[in-house]
């Protein structure tokens, strides 16, 4: 039996392929949007995972250090170590900085300060693509590959010049800004030490200039494997002036409090794009059927059964859906790494989107089928 | 053979619309064309030629009357007496139109084979029949060509071959020569004449061109919403 769908596609394959490419690009954009959403969730948790701590201790009544600002004393790391179930601790600072890239562009970065000789080192060796982690207490910096620096390049931050000793890939803040790492001492100076002009000004005003740099934004801790992190966190909270979160609670704060609005926005865009794509695909299939309405009338006039006509429309719809899915995937995989923020393309999302689009396309093709079934055979001869 | 009924109509009436807006196209029209007969259907524009042809082709429902295709009663007063009008069309009727109306995305041989294959013919049988027809119409070398690659005359021959591919009992032709010059029109009519004689089918052809009437066996003309049957000689004298 002659396959009408195949014959029709073969007859105008260029038009069909271009249509499939167009629909595919639309699907590709939807995939990218889903990928951006996934990327935001992952970005938000990169640091949590790389630090690998079980407890995050911050200033009382705050959701720090990511959702709210938090300042606590650095020596808390030593106090915490007295707890029998805490085995490792580290003080960390987080601040946003502007760095001039080698291309001369100012870029916002997320600066993480840690003690290179401490118990917990947040630079994940797996993410190091060049160089090494910090090995000195001062003036070394580990940067993100997105900034374009090379090993041994120098960067002026605050009053000092830092040398690039390592380059990481994939470490970002919850907002997607590339991360850089400096020593805790350097970061405290960057965050808490005023400029000379400011100090002179404060002295002239009679203000007490107290450059107490021994503050940090959080102290993280690793607990013994047999211990209950939640219970320890409750104990720390009772010490006053402190708040403590387990890693699960911190994860929840990050995904709910920090990126919830942004992720909802992306989610809304994705839903709208899926709906728009479905409508466009429906219109394309409907238009494809309308373009063939004369041929369909001829088929009906010479006695072809309706089922053959329905089969032709359905098969073309499914082939269009499959081709569009392939093109969409190719398109998404070609451009995903060109986006400034992390885009995570997951097979599960792609197949879910394919199923949604295919079902929507088949439903949309029912309009075409309805139009075909209603086509008057006499229309073929202008009757 | 020539006395077998090809198509027969009794008291056929077709009214479009109802009440004051009702348009009476045909009223109690009767006609008969036997197998092996070539009938021309003539009437002024708007008299209902195509409507009659499409009722005979089981495309338009009559208002009342009876239609037989061969021995089979297909329309009985107010309903089709067959379950599937499309099946009747693809098994018993061949259509030829003013334009070729070939399916543009099928090549010549696929256009010809399509209806026989839908009728359940084997691929071999349909292919053999299509090749016979292509040879008969002298377009064998165009078997793989698309309709868009053929001339108007070649496409019309393919369309006639398609109309014959299902070995129909009746051929309904709606002004098949209207778009052709006289020389080509005569060629097509002679071809239809040949088909009538060799394949014992009944042909009803709508035409406006009286120069073609001498090639027909009988003339069906619509006068006062009825069908009057005459011979070509009688018609031309009238």
Write out key terms for the chains shown.
heterodimer; A: 383 residues; alpha+beta; 2 domains; two-stranded antiparallel ribbon; 50% helix; B: 238 residues; alpha/beta; Rossmann fold; six-stranded mixed β-sheet; five-stranded antiparallel β-sheet; 11 strands; 33% helix
What does this structure look like?
The complex is a heterodimer of chains A (383) and B (238). Chain A is an alpha+beta fold. Chain A folds into two domains: 4-42 and 261-381, no CATH class; 93-215, no CATH class. Chain A contains eleven helices and twelve strands. Chain A has helices spanning 4-11, 13-51, 76-80, 184-192, 196-204, 229-237, 247-258, 260-291, 293-301, 306-335, 347-374; strands at 55-59, 72-73, 86-100, 106-114, 128-131, 140-144, 154-157, 160-168, 179-183, 215-216, 218-223, 242-246. In chain A, the strands form two sheets. In chain A, strands 1, 3, 4, 5, 6, 7, 8, 9, 11 and 12 form a ten-stranded mixed sheet that branches. A two-stranded antiparallel ribbon of chain A has the order 2-10. The longest helix of chain A has 39 residues, at 13-51. The mean pLDDT of chain A is 89. Chain B is α/β, with parallel strands linked by helices and 238 residues long. Chain B has a single domain (38-54, 84-237), classed as Rossmann fold (3-Layer(aba) Sandwich), CATH 3.40.50.300. In chain B, the strands form two sheets. In chain B, strands 7-8-9-3-10-11 form a six-stranded mixed sheet. Chain B starts with a strand and ends with a helix. The chains are: A alpha+beta (383), B alpha/beta (238). The interface between A and B is medium-sized, with 24 and 30 residues.
* Helix content class of chain B: 25-40%
The protein's oligomeric status is heterodimer
**Major sheet strand order of chain B:** 7-8-9-3-10-11
**What number is the mean pLDDT of chain B?**
90
**Counted beta strands of chain A:** 12
Distance linking N and C termini of chain B: 31 Å
Q: How many individual β-strands of chain B?
A: 11
Residues in helices of chain A, as a percent range: 40-55%
């Amino acid at each position: 039996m002659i396959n009408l769908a195949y014959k029709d596609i073969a007859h105008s394959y260029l038009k069909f392929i271009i249509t499939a490419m167009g629909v595919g690009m639309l699907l590709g954009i939807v995939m990218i949007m889903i990928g951006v959403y996934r990327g935001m969730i992952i970005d938000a948790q990169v640091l949590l995972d790389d630090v690998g701590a079980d407890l995050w201790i911050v200033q009382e009544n705050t959701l720090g250090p990511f959702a709210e600002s938090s300042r606590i004393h650095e020596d808390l790391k030593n106090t915490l170590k007295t707890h029998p179930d805490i085995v490792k601790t580290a003080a960390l600072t987080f601040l946003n900085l502007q760095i001039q890239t080698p291309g001369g562009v100012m870029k916002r970065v997320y600066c993480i300060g840690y003690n290179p000789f401490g118990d917990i080192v947040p630079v994940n060796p797996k993410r190091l693509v060049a160089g090494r982690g910090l090995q000195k207490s001062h003036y070394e910096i580990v940067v993100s590959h997105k900034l374009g620096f090379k090993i041994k390049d120098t960067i002026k931050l605050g009053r000092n010049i830092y040398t690039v000793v390592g380059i990481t890939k994939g470490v970002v803040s919850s907002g997607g800004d590339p991360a850089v790492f400096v020593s805790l001492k350097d970061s405290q100076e960057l965050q808490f030490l005023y400029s000379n002009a400011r100090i002179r000004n404060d002295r002239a005003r009679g203000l007490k200039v107290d450059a107490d740099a021994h503050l940090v934004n959080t102290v993280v801790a690793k607990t013994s494997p047999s211990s209950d992190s939640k219970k320890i966190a409750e104990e720390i909270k009772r010490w006053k002036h402190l708040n403590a979160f387990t890693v699960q609670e911190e994860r929840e704060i990050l995904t709910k409090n920090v990126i919830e609005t942004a992720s909802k926005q992306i989610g809304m865009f994705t839903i709208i794009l899926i709906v728009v794509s479905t409508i466009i695909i429906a219109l394309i299939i409907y238009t494809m059927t309308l373009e063939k309405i004369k041929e369909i009338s001829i088929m009906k006039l010479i006695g072809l059964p309706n089922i053959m006509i329905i089969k032709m429309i359905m098969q073309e719809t499914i082939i269009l859906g499959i081709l569009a899915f392939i093109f969409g995937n190719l398109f998404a995989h070609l451009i995903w790494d060109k986006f400034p923020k992390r885009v995570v393309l997951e097979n599960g999302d792609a197949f879910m989107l394919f199923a949604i689009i295919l079902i929507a396309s088949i439903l949309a093709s029912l309009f075409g089928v309805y139009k075909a079934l209603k086509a008057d055979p006499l229309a073929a001869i202008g009757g | 053979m020539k006395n077998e009924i090809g198509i027969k109509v009794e008291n056929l009436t077709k009214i479009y619309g109802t009440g004051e807006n009702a348009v009476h196209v045909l009223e109690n029209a009767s006609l008969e064309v036997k197998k092996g007969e070539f009938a021309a259907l003539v009437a002024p524009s708007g008299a209902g030629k195509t409507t009659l042809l499409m009722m005979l082709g089981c495309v338009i429902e009559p208002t009342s009357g009876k239609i037989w295709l061969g021995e089979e009663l297909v329309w009985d007063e107010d309903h089709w007496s067959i379950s599937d009008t499309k099946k009747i069309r693809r098994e018993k009727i061949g259509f030829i139109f003013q334009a070729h109306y070939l399916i543009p995305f099928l090549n010549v041989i696929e256009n010809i084979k399509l209806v026989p294959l839908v009728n359940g013919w084997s691929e071999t049988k349909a292919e053999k029949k299509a090749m016979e027809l292509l040879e008969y119409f002298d377009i064998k070398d165009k078997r793989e060509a698309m309709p868009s690659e053929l001339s108007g005359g070649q496409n019309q021959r393919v369309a006639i071959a398609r109309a014959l591919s299902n070995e129909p009992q009746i051929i309904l032709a709606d002004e098949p020569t209207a778009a052709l010059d006289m020389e080509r029109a005569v060629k097509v009519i002679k071809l239809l004449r040949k088909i009538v004689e060799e394949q014992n089918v009944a042909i009803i052809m709508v035409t406006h061109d009286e120069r073609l009437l001498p090639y027909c066996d009988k003339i069906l003309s619509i006068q006062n919403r009825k069908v009057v049957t005459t011979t070509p000689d009688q018609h031309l004298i009238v």
